Amino acid sequence: FQIAIRACFLGFAFGCGLLLSAGRSAWRHFGWYMCSLSLFHYSEYLVTAINNPRSLSLDSFLLNHSFEYNLAALSSWVEFTVEKLLFPELKQITWLSTVGLLMVIFGDCLRKAAMLTAGSNFNHIVQNEKSDTHTLVTSGVYGWFRHPSYVGWFYWSIGTQVLLCNPICVVGYTLVSWRFFRERIEEEEITLIHFFGEEYLEYKRKVPSGLPFIKGVKVEL
Known about the structure:
About 65% of the residues lie in helices and about 0% in strands. It is an all-alpha fold. The protein has a domain at about 65-205: Four Helix Bundle (Hemerythrin (Met), subunit A) (Up-down Bundle). The longest helix has 30 residues, at about 165-195. The protein starts with a helix and ends in a 15-residue tail after the last helix. Belongs to the class VI-like SAM-binding methyltransferase superfamily. Isoprenylcysteine carboxyl methyltransferase family.
């Protein structure tokens, strides 16, 4: 029942976004944003259900990711509304919103490709214990970046603010997301080195993290 409520809510938000997108008002680009946001959260649950149903839960929607995540979303809505009232022309830069939409599409597709490629090895929570079926994935998008799901989420999050033409949140999202993923990657790589040892270290030497100026955990030789 709770799953159905969340799915219906996201579907309703997506539908509202489509209606706004079809109009010619200054809220058109916000409609693009609503579609992108609702599709991102719904597909997180859907792909988890396909890939790793044993880890599936209400948290797989990522709607309650963290207080900071919800605060960031709220701040972007407030900035959009205030700037729309004070500087309406700022919210009608269609070419810039289109660039943001392309960033959003690229980021979400990359993240979902990473989830599908990793299969049951992917989990929203960093694992501290290695399961019998846990293997090191280095093929597909993992041959491009060590952390393609984080790369996708990073550019998706920034893209949402470029789409909304939110200059303050573009800077804020970039800085906060970069710091979050730097710490998350270091934490995760400590675990991966513990799980896979030299196999992961060799992979780490060959493939970049994918995020700018983030090299991952330092290993003393």
